[in-house]
Amino acid sequence: MELRNGVTLTWLGHAAFRIGTADGRVVLVDPWLDNPKAPPSAKNLDRADAVLVTHGHFDHLGNTAEIARQHGAKVLAIYEVATWLQGHGVPEDQLIPMNKGGTVDLDGVRVTMVHAQHSSGITGENGLEPGGDAAGYVVRFGNDFSLYHAGDTNVHADMRLIGELYQPQVALLPIGGHFTMGPTEAASAARMLGVRAVVPMHYGTFPLLTGTPAQLREALGAAEIEVVELEPGGSLE
């Protein structure tokens, strides 16, 4: 599997990814860089231009505030999460609050927030605080390449619409089960999306997340969809 338009994709463990663009920009998704599967180099960031947060749970919000303050990154998040981040030291001019269906153009990289079927909530000093809805993102590079990060979700029928509207070629899908869909549901999601390849995520981090890439391949059967099993720190380009 090769990506297009000079894009690189690096898995940083769990649901965290680093996306590099042809002009050297860096977009991070759900940067929990202290996760048990993170490579030793995960926090050695020399640059971060944007951070996409799918929802407020600790294993996705992760190191967002720290990264934003250190690198001046723009942070895209659902309104409630963005408001929480502003109250925790992220400057207002770096925050881009949005909601499902919205699209933000980051100098030619178009990011659309899409539906996810999951809960949200932020563990803060006052206990569990409201985190709005969970979401996913479609990231489009030019007119002929896009990828989809599903965030935490069960399979849902809107995935067919995501495929029709945005035509992602690559889907980053959770497969661990228990808190998200497992391999069987992820295979159904991949078929509805019409993608060429799936990069599994959100598995193996904790004992409860038992789904595996091998089970996803089995569930896909004869479907012509490649399962790209990255090691933490591994990349596609």
Please describe the topology of this protein.
Blueprint: E1 8-11, E2 17-20, E3 26-29, E4 50-52, H1 58-61, H2 64-71, E5 74-78, H3 79-86, E6 95-98, E7 103-106, E8 109-115, E9 122-124, E10 127-129, E11 135-141, E12 145-149, H4 158-166, E13 170-174, H5 183-193, E14 197-201, H6 213-220, E15 226-227, E16 235-236
Parallel strand pairs: 3-4, 4-5, 5-6, 12-13, 13-14, 14-15
Antiparallel strand pairs: 1-2, 1-16, 2-3, 7-8, 8-11, 9-10, 11-12
Helix pairs in contact: 4-5, 5-6
Could you characterize what this model shows?
The chain has 237 residues and is an alpha/beta fold. It has a single domain (8-236), classed as Ribonuclease Z/Hydroxyacylglutathione hydrolase-like (Metallo-beta-lactamase, Chain A, 4-Layer Sandwich). It has helices spanning 58-61, 64-71, 79-86, 158-166, 183-193, 213-220, and strands spanning 8-11, 17-20, 26-29, 50-52, 74-78, 95-98, 103-106, 109-115, 122-124, 127-129, 135-141, 145-149, 170-174, 197-201, 226-227, 235-236. The strands form three sheets. A seven-stranded mixed sheet has the order 6-5-4-3-2-1-16, covered by helices on one side. It has a seven-stranded mixed sheet with strand order 7-8-11-12-13-14-15. Helix 5 (183-193) links the parallel strand 13 (170-174) and strand 14 (197-201). Helix 4 (158-166) runs parallel beside helix 5 (183-193) and helix 5 crosses helix 6 (213-220). The radius of gyration is 16 Å and the shape is globular. The N and C termini lie close together (8 Å). The mean pLDDT is 97.
